[in-house]
Each structure stands twice: as structure tokens, then as C-alpha cells.
Queue: 2 jobs
Job 1
Amino acid sequence: NAGVTQTPKFRILKIGQSMTLQCTQDMNHNYMYWYRQDPGMGLKLIYYSVGAGITDKGEVPNGYNVSRSTTEDFPLRLELAAPSQTSVYFCASSYSEDGTEAFFGQGTRLTVV
Amino acid sequence: GNSVTQMEGPVTLSEEAFLTINCTYTATGYPSLFWYVQYPGEGLQLLLKATKADDKGSNKGFEATYRKETTSFHLEKGSVQVSDSAVYFCALRDILAGSARQLTFGSGTQLTVLP
């Protein structure tokens, strides 16, 4: 009963470092998403994928990259971390059918110093 | 484009008080509507949903009715508990706008229930 699993849960990066946030789901969902949540704000979509090999930009893609080589995995890559990327990152997945909800991971709290 | 507007928070209530959190939306098609809840330190969980006009979603004593005429999906609970303290997000998914791929979220409403 794993659902959507994100790792790591917490990370501190120095400015200019790179890292990959991992996300995996075991529900055979074809849609996957990455959101960021800043304090007191809603969720902003970074990237999404409608299936293996297909990704597309969301509202705030700059500074990030994604790949989707399998149905299960959707890693988010941060290149050259900046303080503006300090946030909580959530991965989510869903079926494609209308009316279906998204399932969220527990989140990764990232601080860039 | 699609958008969701939620009641500004934070909201503070006493236990057993009545809760309403307003949510209105703008969509080009016929969206499905959702309420998610986020407890401290956790990810978002689906609370309830409605997929067509006049549907009522309900769960854990919470209810929301999909009102197409007023483009609203207000969340209500008759008697809140301390354990309901969380952030509540209204969201929509609109397949006809070609954005079924995305959930559009409101900004969230922080609810604190005092004993």
C-alpha cells in the first residue's frame, strides 16, 4: 500500500549544487506531476507527464528538469540550486480519466543556503 | 484559463462550531471539483469530490455541492473538531480545456479549531 513515495524528506543544498528528487508510484498511473508549495501559498505546477517518455512544462519550470523513462518513476532534477528554490516539493500521480483525483507523496522540504 | 479562488484565511473556530470555506472557480469546460486536506507536515489527501453539476461530495462529516449556476463548491461541516485543524485546498480538473493533465489549486485556507 505504498502509493506515491518521495525521497529524500529533507535536504539542505548550497547555492550552485545540484540534486535529484525521487518520486515513484505503484498504482500504474499514467499521469504524474511535480508541484512546489511556498509558505502560505498554494501549489504551483513545475512539470507534468502524461506517460512514459512524455513530459511537459507547468507554470514554473525554470531551473528544473524532469524525465519519465518508466511509468513508475518521475524524478525532478535541480541544476545550479538557488535560494528561490527553497520550498516544499510534492510529487503526485493520477489516472487520466476525467473525475479522477491525484494522489500525493509526503513531500520533500528543500532549503538552499 | 482555469482558476480557483478560495476564502482568505486563516480561520479560527471553537470546537463544535459550523464551518464554511468558500470556493469559486473559472473553467472553460465542465470541470471535476475537489477538496484536499493537508495536515501539518504531510502531503495532500483527497477529502471529497464532485464530478458533475448538483453532485454532493461528502466525507468525514464534510460536504460540498457542485453549483454550476454560481460556479461554486463551498466546503461545510456542521460541527468541527480539534482534529480538523489543517489547510484545505479547493481544486479543479477540466478535461474539455485540454488540461485534464493538470489540477488547478486554490491558495489554501488554514483552519485552526480551538478546544
Job 2
Amino acid sequence: NAGVTQTPKFRVLKTGQSMTLLCAQDMNHEYMYWYRQDPGMGLRLIHYSVGEGTTAKGEVPDGYNVSRLKKQNFLLGLESAAPSQTSVYFCASSYSPQTQYFGPGTRLLVL
Amino acid sequence: AQSVTQLDSHVSVSEGTPVLLRCNYSSSYSPSLFWYVQHPNKGLQLLLKYTSAATLVKGINGFEAEFKKSETSFHLTKPSAHMSDAAEYFCVVLTGNQFYFGTGTSLTVIP
């Protein structure tokens, strides 16, 4: 039982490049979330999903897109990366909107 | 609007002395409240949660928190700090399907 895993662990992008972050969970959770963590700002919700095929915007959705084609996977896409998207990205999942289980994070540097 | 305020960005305590990390919240609804801990370069781990049952909530590693509606507070305490408690602590409020994080309190434990 791996819990929540994130791929990749670290990535460097140039401004304007695109990439996809993968979050996978093996706990059969309905809810999945993408956050970004910036110094002094805590975690901010980017997008979330309440089930397969559904997505919704969080606090800071601009510049990101998501997809939940399979229940166990939640993808976060950056179509045209900007330096302001340099951050640590965390994925989380939960059975209901209560206790969240977090992945180890992905560090993204946009030059 | 929902928000969480962690009143101290940094707290230092000596090993063996009590810990107090303060959190105030605002919520239009009866909230669910959480404390998470993040050790360096790690994901977040749930310490405890309040979901409208007992107002004094006990969590892992000897931590507890008291929900005080009249003061809109959910402070985290521990009677005796251990070196392994050094970490970042986040107070979180859940409203609907969205979690709102405080900006975090960094706890230093002095030997």
C-alpha cells in the first residue's frame, strides 16, 4: 500500500514549457486535491476532484488545468510555465472531505 | 468568507517545556478544524481533527487542541516538547469541499 505518490519529485522548466504532474493513490479515495506551497503562505488549493471525471477550481486555479480520468489518478498540467509557478506542489486524497493523506511533494523550478 | 490565522510564525521552546501554537479561524458555518505537521522536506501528516464532537481533541504524539467557539480558536498544545517535535505546523479549516490553510508556525525545540 503506497498511499499517495507523486511523479516527478523534482523538475526544472524554462518559461513557456509545459508539463504534467501525476498524483496516484491506491486507497480508493473519492476526493483528490492539488496544492501549492510557497514560503510564508501555507498551502493553497489549486484544483480538486470529488470523483472520477469531475474537477473543480480552488483558490488559485489560474495557469493550471487538471484531469481525473481514472479514480486513482489526478493530473495537474501547466500549459505554459511561468516563474511565478515555481513552488512545491502537493497532492492529497481523502475518502470524504475530512482527513487528507498527502504525497511527498514535487519541487518545480521555472527559469 | 473562511480564513485561518496562525498568530505566531515562529515558536521556540526548550525540550521538556509546554508547547502552545495558536490558531484563530473565521467561518460562516460550523467548521471542521485540523492540525497538520510537516517535517523538513516531507509531506503533511494529520495530528488531530475537530468535527463537532468533543471540544477537546486528542491527537498523535501527545498533542491536543481545544475548540472554543466563543473565541473562534483552536490552539494546539503539548505538555512536554520533544526534539522530534521540531517542524512546521498548519492549522486548517474545512468548509464544504475546500480546505483553507494557515500560513504555518515553525516550532523550534532547544535542547
